[in-house]
Amino acid sequence: MSQPRKNPVRRTAAALTAVVMLAFVSVLGVAWFQKARAVQDETYQYLELFNQVLTIVQRDYVKEVNVKDLIYGAIRGMLETLDPHTVFLSKEDFEEMKGDISGEFGGLGIEISVRNGWIVIIAPIEDTPAWKAGLKADDLIVEIEGESTRNMNINDAVHRMRGEIGTPVTIKVMREGFDEPRPFTIVRDRIQIKSVKEAELMSGDIAYLKCVTFTGNTETEARAGINQLAAQAKNGLKGIVLDLRGNPGGPLDQAIKLSDMFISEGVIVSVAGRVEKQPPAFAHKAGTIDNVPMVVLVNQHSASASEIVAGALQDHGRAVIMGKTTFGKGSVQQLRQLKDNAGLKLTTAYYYTPSGRSIQEQGITPDIAVDALSPQQKIKLEEAEKADKHYLREKDLQGHFSHEDVVGPESGDSAAPPENPDAKVEKEDEKLLPDKVGEDTDDYQLQRALDLLRSFEIFHSVLSRKAG
């Protein structure tokens, strides 16, 4: 039996369609190739320019220069055109960066960034030499060992402040309220960062965890702290306060793991970049502490990983976020090892909270905004400042004798000691805060968190009685 013949019109149409599609793909391919070729040609053009400048400098500069210094400097300059968090790391800087992540290194104990071309302290780490010397968040470091930090690379600044344990380093700091920069000479020490600084049971049944930074052990330390406090609570935990105030952040994976401790399901954080696409990080049911009400304390110095945790818990309705709006760093960096054992810390993506919001520049807005000082503390502070300002001294009297009138300009008299340049000038929100958190704390934000958790327990108890 003969097969039916195919419709010649249909066959021709199919062939024409194939030809058109092939032509379209060919045009796209040619366009892509031409674009890639154009980009490559442009790159080679500027590399030739770079090589020309390098050759001229090596040949004609007033003194002989090290080609490695020139190349390293060029790389740093290139990356400075991108963003504050993308930096080139020399071999030494790369080793220091890995030490930061592991949680142990030698230095002063401060987290720094760049603001308007100056090195600024994001936060000193508690109980480190910098913290004990009185350095504060928002201090500007204007000199390190006599060298201005104006437009200094952040990793250069870190490298200069770190060194052999027991050796001193002198920095000059400018702070609001200072007439001029003041010197601080600080002795370097081994910085062993304990991520969870405090784990304390408050009111007999509320777990308080103060997480001062993120390291490779943050989730392990936090879980151990919670388990220890849960064992101490006679009738179980009635609340959890996670204190992330002043926490500058750290590894992304630890922010995910800490969030996963308190969230049983759903997205924790999403990461999206121009090239690298990653699936969202999801929470897991196993090991979740999801049956205890929770408050997270944040402030303007809570950054990066701290904001990931606060954003995840807020979006899932797992915790009440209390305090001040956070720092607003919404980008992700990765470490890449290069030749010569150097490294590159590269911004590769932005992160988004479970609801899809970016906190870049915006920060995490607390559910309950609470100032660091209570109204009563502010009144006391204002009264103290007013009394200090109007306290009458001999030098305030019109026509008073000067010190030189009495002892002479050349006497060398040292009866009056010079002003101590290292004296602490405390911030308004720190003058009345205690050094250690206790049951009857003057920490207003923490007290508000405890009050909220206690009221929740009372409210829940009242509703249970009514239902029964």
Give a verbal description of the structure:
The chain has eleven helices and 19 strands. With 468 residues, the chain is an alpha+beta fold. About 6% of the residues have low confidence. The radius of gyration is 30 Å and the shape is globular. A hairpin with a 3-residue loop joins strand 10 and strand 11. Helix 6 runs parallel beside helix 7 and helix 7 packs parallel to helix 8.
The CATH architecture of the domain at 194-333 and 347-387 and 430-468: Alpha-Beta Complex
> How many helices in DSSP terms?
11
CATH C-level class of the domain at 194-333 and 347-387 and 430-468: Alpha Beta
Structural class label: alpha+beta
**CATH fold assignment of the domain at 194-333 and 347-387 and 430-468:** 2-enoyl-CoA Hydratase, Chain A, domain 1
CATH homolog superfamily of the domain at 194-333 and 347-387 and 430-468: 2-enoyl-CoA Hydratase, Chain A, domain 1
- N-to-C order of helices and strands: HHEHEEEHEEHEEEEEHEHEEEHEEEEHHH
| Largest sheet features | 6 strands, antiparallel
Percent of residues in β-strands: 15-25%
Radius of gyration from the alpha-carbon trace, in angstroms: 30 Å
The N- and C-terminal alpha carbons lie at a distance of 86 Å
* Portion in helices: 25-40%
Mean pLDDT: 81
Q: Number of DSSP strands? A: 19
The parts where pLDDT drops under 50 for at least 5 residues are 412-440
Q: Categorize the overall geometry.
A: globular
